[in-house]
Amino acid sequence: MKLGEIMTASSLSLEELANKLKVEFSGNGDLQITHVCGLDSLQPGGLAYLTSPGNIKSVPTPAGMSRQVTTTVDEINSSQVALVVSPEVQHPEHNLLISTDPLATHVAATILLNPVELNIPGLTKKSAIHPSAVISKSAKLGRNVIVGPKVVIYDGVSIGENTILHAGVVIMGHVVIGVDCILYPNAVVQDKSEIGDRVILQSGAVIGADGHGYFQREGTNRKIPQVGNVRLEDDVEIGACTTIDRARFRTTIIKQGSKLDNQVQIAHNVSLGEHALISAQSAVGGSVKTGDHLIMGGQSGIRDNVNIGNNVTAVARAVITANTQDKEVIGGMPGRPVSQWRQLQSLINRLAELFDRVRKLESRRDVE
């Protein structure tokens, strides 16, 4: 089902769910699965997944419960729930979906059982554009584009089919947005930005703000015009209140599949590689170029004009201040290989002990 279609909550039998997910099942195929959950929150109709085959013992079977001395009325047993398991897990008293990747199957089940619900006030079956929206006559909207209340779309904008613009979104001049995108309330896309397909902008995200470019003359800060743009490639997601600055001359690029958390800052001229994962309150300085599969822990950073290899990880609060090779794991400030950083942290934690030893040695010397 396409984005933009109004969908309602769903439940599926275990057999129906297995067929839709293209996996095998065992147990009661008629069991109605109403929701997904974790092992620690199982309720009747729930579907959980196992991170370890041994965890199946935490879900009692009816036979096992009957052998217990005491039971509670509301205790859950295996006849009421289902589990996503790997192929080596076999158990006749459990309802199972059998998958080579239980987590991925559980995520796919989550999507099936929690379809997109679109209920924007003021829209009707005849009109997908809210009457309070302001749309330039030169803007081009594809099929099934949904435009919510008080959206503003400037001149020369092009928006692909099935894209959803929630309330208060602003799309400035000559922006291009692909198909199947979702822009949540109050997201802003500034002039000349390019948004790929299936991109998600969470509330308050700003794409294409001016980069932090200034120079000083006679003690006064003077602004350097930022005349480039931003390009987000396909399947990128930008978190709430995250800002991606436009380039000074060319393009700030966030490559395919990268996912940025809330309150992240990407400075001007950055080229962020494919499938990056950047956690909240992190920052990437101007003109940084990274390889693919960068991981940044919370409150980490990269200094401007640094080149980062592929598969590099910055642990939480690390600051990368120099070029890296592939597969490096960086910790601390200034950043260094994480093994060195841990050794230094260990020494720092022993400083009080070391100072005490030094004082004792000094007092012994004074006595002598």
In CATH, the architecture of the domain at 187-334 is: 3 Solenoid
Question: Distance between the terminal alpha carbons, to the nearest Å?
Answer: 87 Å
What percentage of the residues does DSSP assign to strands (E)? Answer: 25-35%
| CATH topology description of the domain at 187-334 | UDP N-Acetylglucosamine Acyltransferase, domain 1
Strand adjacency order, main sheet = 10-13-16-19-24-27-30-33-36-38-39
User: Biggest β-sheet, characterized?
Assistant: 11 strands, mixed
Average pLDDT number:
90
Residues in helix, % = 10-25%
> What is the number of helical segments per DSSP (H or I, 4+ residues)?
5
Helix/strand-derived category reads: alpha/beta
Computed over alpha carbons, the radius of gyration is 27 Å
Principal-axes geometry comes out as flat
Number of strands: 39
Return the CATH class of the domain at 187-334: Mainly Beta
* Low-pLDDT sequence parts: 1-9, 67-73
CATH H level, superfamily name of the domain at 187-334 = Hexapeptide repeat proteins
